[in-house]
Amino acid sequence: MENSTTRLLKTYKVDIPAVKFVGRKYSEEEKKDGTFGRLWSEWFAGGWFEPLEALIEDPGFIEDGDAYCGMSRIFDDGTWEYWIGMIVPESADVPTGYESFAIPACSAVTNWVYGKEPDVYFHCCLKDMEEQGYVWTAIPSGERLMTERYVCPRFTDPDKDGNLILDLVYFTDYK
């Protein structure tokens, strides 16, 4: 349930070149207590982001190109995947032990959600986006993509009141 102090600070659209997402795929059954938090802890403890960070020579290849991501991938038949990893340049090699999928050139609507953990995870931006003229559509490859983008220091350094900013990014099929 969203806390009343959680709010949307900013919504904007950017164009994304063809890229790929590299990480590991998880299913609904792998949640514990309704979240993937345990898996994120495993990623940090295991140093699993380090091989992905090495794939990014210039973090400016996309906006906040060095951020860790939790990517939701939703297909037309209703199936769903959750991935932990990073968006990397299209030409990057996939390290052993990781999987990837292509993200064709598209647009992305970024929403900065301000509040406390865990409330920021439950803020739904779709109504706000629609009021601003943005529609979440499937990307050219046919699926819907949404990522929680954890940007330093917006997410990692809470303000004096303990609030932080989580980016919720919806990929769309228009420019």
Question: What would you say about this model in short?
Answer:
The chain has 175 residues and is mostly beta strands. Helix content is 11%, strand content 38%.
Task: Output the keywords.
175 residues, mainly beta, 11% helix
Topology:
Blueprint: E1 7-16, E2 19-26, H1 37-46, H2 50-53, E3 68-74, E4 80-89, E5 99-103, E6 106-115, H3 126-131, E7 144-150, E8 164-172
Antiparallel strand pairs: 1-6, 2-4, 2-5, 3-4, 3-7, 6-8, 7-8
Number-wise, the strands total 8
Q: Order of strands across the biggest sheet?
A: 1-6-8-7-3-4-2-5
The shape is globular
Low-confidence stretches: none
> What is the number of helical segments per DSSP (H or I, 4+ residues)?
3
How many whole angstroms does the radius of gyration measure?
16 Å
Helix and strand element order: EEHHEEEEHEE
